[in-house]
C-alpha cells in the first residue's frame, strides 16, 4: 500500500528505527530521534543496493517518488545511480576555485612570496567572484572573456593578460589531473589587445640624481620608510625584495645581505654586498625594528611588511610623479650609470639579479664577480654621495 502524507505525519518515533514502505523500492526510515529519511532499495546485476534520497519534509513525498523514478530509469539502462551520484558530487567539488587553490599550493614553493600574494589577489579580485564556484570542466571561453573584459575596461590590460595566462595554467592543471577535458583559454589568445611595453620611470641624469638624493634626505615620513627610501639607491634591489626583507638575512659585520631563493624572481639566492653607507642606515634601523622580523613592518601590523606602494608614495610626497621616478627606477638608475662609468657589464647584471640562461656562465658569474661587485657597490655608494653634495665623482678604483 502506498504511503500518504497524513500517514507520514502520524508516524511516531519508536525505541528502534522502523520503515514505512511506499512502492517500487521506496520507503521512509523513521529514526528514534524523530528524523525521517527516504531510502530507495534497488537491484543491479543481481546485487541489492541502497540509496539515500534525503530527509522528510525537506524532500516531500512527491519529490521522493520523482527521484525514485529517475533512479529506476538509470537502473533500467544498466547505470548504477549511486555511481552517477558520486561522479556528480565530484564534479561539483572540482570548482575553478578549488582547483586553483590546489594549483597555487603546488606552485607556492617555487615562487617568491610577493609573486604568490599578487597571484592570489588577482584570482580573488578578477575570477573567484564570477567563476570560482563553477565546475572547472564547464567553464567556457565566453565566461572567461567576460571576466577579462571587466579587467580591460578599468584600464588594467597587463593584469587581464596575466589573468588569462594563469587561468589557463589552472585549467591545464585540471586537465592533467582528470578534472577537465579542454582548455577554453586557447580560444582567447587573440581576444585582448597587445600590451604596450613601458619602462619604469627612472632618473639617470647625474645632476638630477643628486637633486633626488637631497630631496630624499628631506623626507619627513616614519623612520622605517625614511630608511627604505634612503637604502633603495644603495642596494637597487627589486622593491618587493626590499620591502619583504627580514633581519635574519643580514650580516652587518660581514657587510652582506643574502636574499633566499624563495624570494627571488629567478629562484636563486642573491647576494647584495653592503656599502658603509648602507650598513650605517641598517644599523640605525635595527635598533628600532630588529633584531627579528621585517626591516620595514607595516604601520598597522608589525607582523606584516610595509605596503608595496610605500616607497612610491614617499617619492610622490617629495613631488616626483609616476612619470618621473619609481621605486623600481633605482635599478635603471644604477644600471645606466654603472655601465656609463665603465664597470664590468656581467658584474652589473649579476648584481641586478638578472637571469643568466647558460648555467655554466651563471655559475662562473656567481663565483668570479662577487669580489668585483663588493668593490662596485662601495664605489657606487661613494659616487651617489658625491652627486648628493653636488660633486662629480669618478669611478672608484
Structural overview:
- This protein has 397 residues and is an alpha+beta fold.
- It has 17 helices and seven strands.
- It has helices at 5-10, 61-76, 81-93, 96-107, 113-126, 128-131, 141-153, 157-176, 206-217, 223-235, 239-243, 276-289, 310-317, 329-340, 345-351, 359-368, 370-388, and strands at 18-21, 26-30, 36-44, 47-56, 250-251, 256-259, 270-273.
- The strands form two sheets. It has a four-stranded antiparallel sheet.
- Helix 9 (206-217) packs across helix 17 and helix 10 (223-235) crosses helix 13 (310-317).
- The protein is elongated and about 105 Å long.
What's the gist of this structure?
The chain has helices spanning 5-10, 61-76, 81-93, 96-107, 113-126, 128-131, 141-153, 157-176, 206-217, 223-235, 239-243, 276-289, 310-317, 329-340, 345-351, 359-368, 370-388; strands at 18-21, 26-30, 36-44, 47-56, 250-251, 256-259, 270-273.
